[in-house]
């Protein structure tokens, strides 16, 4: 079952049906296109039952993070207590129960499974409890900021928030993959982590190779060697990812009025000239031609 809401104040019904909760109260539910962010009050000993969803392409996955301890019973079969602030992953094809050890609040990020299912290609099943990581802490802080403050919203910001949440959740799950479960035919885990960071940060024009190296605690030379083993370079991966983002923005009807300069900014380029150079590097027609083609 996917998340289907009509405005930013709705969506609680879909969340409640997925959780099948007892004494579950949603205080805030914010929709960012296909992604939903919510905050709930939960009573002590109240249980949420997350049921397996049909494999029909419309499934929803979720990440929960609570201000109180939770007891989770899922893939490991026995109940396991999860400390406050720890992320809990709800897989659309596995039944899980979540019980509040104390009364408190729980935040949730609800993401279409078809944006995440690639994560399971060639790996062991992910457990419900997600180990603590920098990406996980960042996701927690971002959700708290969205739910705790009021921001001016536009279709463009909603689109960017949707992408950021989906990409952060993807990165969190990627980091949680058991090392023994990685298919050796795929790129190394370090390259995958680097690429997940690129996906999350590509819309920021200030994010470059040096910033990527810092976030991975590597020197630039180490980062270059890492990508060389995958027959690429960090600069090429970042440029390619930004080109893909720009092309996707051009294809969306909600962005039809954006000029080339605005598309460049939203895609992480410093200006329209940088976007044109990147398109030429990728062997594409000029951004103006592609944008005009999508308008007709």
Automatic annotation (TrEMBL):
Keyword hit for Transcription: yes
Matches recorded under InterPro entries: AraC_XylS_family_regulators, HTH_AraC
GO molecular function, one term: DNA-binding transcription factor activity
Organism this protein belongs to: Microbacterium azadirachtae
A Pfam family of this chain: HTH_18
Name of the featured protein: DNA-binding transcriptional activator FeaR
Alphabetic keyword roster: DNA-binding, Transcription, Transcription regulation
Domain HTH araC/xylS-type per the UniProt entry, residue ranges: 192-293
Gene3D superfamilies per UniProt: Homeodomain-like (1.10.10.60)
